[in-house]
């Protein structure tokens, strides 16, 4: 008879730095807030190369959002001690 604690294979729970996870969440939240607050950029001036502010502001966020998403991804990996391939980084104690 099985008790509830012996059901299925166990997963390795990777401890994470919660402050770095919060920072990653903030990085993901910034573009959402910036683009949901339409009143802040629903205007024509200032123009950039004769492009109204409303358009170039949103286009600028395409690049900023990509950078922030990548940074959040790297922060999550770093908070869990993983490298870019999702594998555990070798520590100075020799365990990988």
Radius of gyration of CA atoms, rounded to a whole number: 21 Å
List low-confidence stretches. Answer: none
Percentage of residues in DSSP E strands: under 5%
Task: Give the overall silhouette.
Answer: elongated
Q: Could you spell the SSE succession in H and E letters? A: HH
What is the average per-residue confidence, as pLDDT, rounded to a whole number? Answer: 83
Q: Quick one: how many beta strands? A: 0
| Category by helix and strand content | mainly alpha
Report the total helices: 2
Biggest sheet details: none
Helix content: 40-55%
User: What is the first-to-last residue Cα distance?
Assistant: 36 Å
Question: What would you note in describing this structure?
Answer:
With 96 residues, this protein is mainly alpha-helical. The protein has helices spanning 18-36, 53-79. Helix 1 runs antiparallel to helix 2. The chain starts with 17 loop residues before the first helix and ends in a 17-residue tail after the last helix. The mean pLDDT is 83.
Question: Could you list some keywords that capture this structure?
Answer:
96 residues, mainly alpha
Topology:
Elements: H1 18-36, H2 53-79
Helix pairs in contact: 1-2
Short description:
With 96 residues, the protein is mostly helical. The chain is 48% helix and 0% strand. It has helices at 18-36, 53-79.
